[in-house]
Specification:
Layout: H1 17-33, E1 38-45, E2 56-62, E3 65-73, H2 79-100, E4 106-111, H3 116-124, E5 128-131, E6 136-137
Parallel strand pairs: 3-4, 4-5
Antiparallel strand pairs: 1-2, 2-3, 5-6
């Protein structure tokens, strides 16, 4: 888009958090559905979870073994926001493990766009990621 003064401006879509979460669930479920031998089970949104430390949880099955994917969704994929989301996911995972013993769900961070720097940060913390531009990393148990 060219502004009247002749400068180019990128169009940035501003996401409503609720709308973004709906799109995030759809994107992650689609990603999971692309994994052979994986069956997606229940999707539980934050409002229905006892400890609201993550935005949604997806139960899935791989080869007869049940697993959980915990997701945190942010309207920005900036490095600062990503670090906060990663910390939230890891903290929630630790709190639940303390309550339930051997509990090791997969973690995923979702935002409209994740830069190469943020994607590398997610890999460094062993957190999966998905953005609405098709950038994704999904490493799951089994």
């Amino acid at each position: 888009m060219v502004h009247p003064n002749g400068h180019f401006h990128r169009m940035v879509k501003l996401y409503d958090p609720v709308e973004l979460e709906v799109e995030a669930v759809a994107a992650v479920v689609s990603l999971l559905n692309d994994v052979p031998a994986l069956t997606v089970g229940d999707v539980v949104r934050e409002a229905n979870m006892p400890d609201r430390g993550v935005d949604f949880r997806i139960d899935f099955d791989v080869g007869g073994s049940s697993h959980i994917l915990l997701a945190e969704v942010k309207t920005s994929g900036s490095p600062r926001t990503a670090r906060h989301a990663i910390d939230q996911l890891i903290s929630y995972q630790s709190r639940q493990a303390a309550k339930h013993g051997n509990w090791n769900p997969a973690l995923i961070f979702v935002a409209p766009y994740l830069s190469p720097q943020v994607r590398e940060m997610c890999r460094d913390f062993e957190v999966n990621y998905c953005d609405l531009f098709g950038n994704a990393r999904l490493v799951l148990p089994g």
